[in-house]
């Protein structure tokens, strides 16, 4: 099953860097999913950081019993990272072209 999470690391107060069995890697922000009684405690960054990987279920779990289906994690959009965009070769090329064109162009 391609949706199995094989690696999960906290990458922000409510974001995870996930690696799936099919090799897909992405950073996802879970804050929009943290609603309801079982997820409410995870709004606290310390509680959120207690995430672990359940290798049997192939997904992320927390000590309070919260978990998120691996297929739901797989379908979440990747979090955008403006610093990563600034470091990308394409962005650097665009900045270089803008400077070469001069101000106001």
Description:
The protein has helices at 45-48, 70-75, 82-87, 89-101; strands at 5-10, 15-20, 25-29, 52-54, 59-61. A 3-stranded antiparallel beta sheet has the order 1-2-3. Strands 4-5 form a two-stranded antiparallel ribbon. The chain has one domain: NE0471 N-terminal domain-like, CATH 3.30.2020. The chain is globular. The longest helix has 13 residues, at 89-101. The protein starts with a strand and ends with a helix. The protein contains 4 helices and 5 strands, in the order βββαββααα. 28% of the residues lie in helices and 22% in strands. The chain is α+β, with helices and mostly antiparallel strands.
CATH topology: NE0471 N-terminal domain-like
Q: Which CATH top level class fits? A: Alpha Beta
Summarize the amount of helix as a percent range: 25-40%
What number is the mean pLDDT? 84
Short description:
This protein has 105 residues and is an alpha+beta fold. Helix content is 28%, strand content 22%.
Name the descriptors.
single chain; 105 residues; 28% helix; globular; two-stranded antiparallel ribbon; 3-stranded antiparallel beta sheet
What topology does this entry show?
Blueprint: E1 5-10, E2 15-20, E3 25-29, H1 45-48, E4 52-54, E5 59-61, H2 70-75, H3 82-87, H4 89-101
Antiparallel strand pairs: 1-2, 2-3, 4-5
């Amino acid at each position: 099953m391609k949706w199995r999470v094989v690696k999960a690391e906290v990458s922000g107060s409510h974001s995870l860097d996930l690696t799936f069995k099919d090799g897909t890697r992405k950073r996802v922000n879970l804050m929009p999913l943290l609603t309801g009684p079982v997820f409410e405690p995870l709004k606290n960054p310390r509680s959120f950081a207690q995430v672990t990987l359940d290798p049997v279920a192939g997904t992320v779990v927390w000590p309070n019993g919260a978990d998120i289906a691996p297929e739901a994690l797989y379908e979440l959009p990747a979090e955008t990272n403006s610093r990563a965009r600034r470091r990308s070769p394409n962005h650097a090329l665009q900045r270089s072209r803008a400077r070469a064109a001069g101000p106001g162009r």
